[in-house]
Amino acid sequence: MEILDGKKVSNEIKDEIAIQVAKMREKGEKVPHLAAILVGSDGASLTYVGSKVRSCEKVGFESTLVRMPSTTSELELLNKIEELNKNEDIDGFIVQLPLPPQIDTQKVLLAVDPDKDVDGFHPMNFGKMALDMSTFIPATPFGILELLERYNVDTKGKHTVVIGRSHIVGRPMSILMGRKGWPGNSTVTLTHSHTKNITQIISQADIVISALGVPKFLKAEMIKDDAVIIDVGITRVADDSCEKGYYITGDVDFENVSKKASFITPVPGGVGPMTIAMLLKNTLLARERHRSRK
Ligand SMILES: Nc1nc(=O)c2c([nH]1)NC[C@@H]1CN(c3ccc(C(=O)N[C@@H](CCC(=O)O)C(=O)O)cc3)C=[N+]21
Known about the structure:
Elements (H helix, E strand, L loop, with lengths): L1 E2 L2 H21 L6 E7 L3 H17 L2 E7 L5 H13 L5 E4 L9 H7 L11 H9 L7 H12 L8 E5 L6 H9 L8 E5 L6 H5 L4 E4 L17 E4 L3 E4 L7 E4 L4 H4 L5 E2 L6 H23 L1
Parallel strand pairs: 1-11, 2-3, 2-4, 5-6, 5-7, 7-8, 8-11
Antiparallel strand pairs: 9-10
Bound molecules: 5,10-Methenyltetrahydrofolate.
The site of 5,10-Methenyltetrahydrofolate has 18 residues, from helix 2, strand 4 and helix 10.
């Protein structure tokens, strides 16, 4: 069994990006600028936005964090998005999800200029991704493809079962694994809460991508020998004996499943750090596009 080490690969990617940014600086070029809007102060969002800002500093990007109170109205947020859309110094920005209930998430994601949508959530980018991948691929699916590629995981003709059909992971992942090319050319089953006989379907999978958010949902007896396991689930479990007062766990019962799998991503240290690294890659792409237009 081989660990798909997201922490190691994300650091390699950040080192590669840092070298590119240093060259831009030497040539006196503008360096990439990533902004994030955080509405409210949800613990997990603060952690993730924090690591995004720290990663920007590590690779030499400019970064801007816009904090807005959890009482922010939809109109106030839409106005802020319009401001960032127009701000030529900002190459890409994200609106950290989830948003408070008074704000319509779909409306917000549609308001982001697709040209700055480094999350790849805008329908325009989703459509292009499905066509020819010529644009921002959502960071988590992009990170999974990168891991499969770096570890040379065979996906051609394999049966991939995606568990969970979220807009930001499950649905794009099912399209990307079924596309022409590698990693891809896989036969994909997208499962969800209405899927019948889900355990029977999972038992046939060569590759399982679990993006459910249900701790230890995937048990060893559910998968076949040598399956490739990608754990996207990241759930915080309160535990006072832990330093941070919680520990995080994935959808996969890692200890037992790893005894049967051929490849497996750990949580933490797997898909999570890759999400950050690929967001930086998308921001670099945005900068290169803006520079070539000048
Ligand atoms: N507009 C938007 N874009 C996102 O990409 C986005 C989002 N909203 N909302 C939430 C999800 C989740 N997400 C993660 C990023 C990093 C880790 C990560 O670095 N996890 C570490 C552990 C971090 C910890 O200690 O909790 C790991 O898995 O090793 C996890 C999850 C990005 N998301």
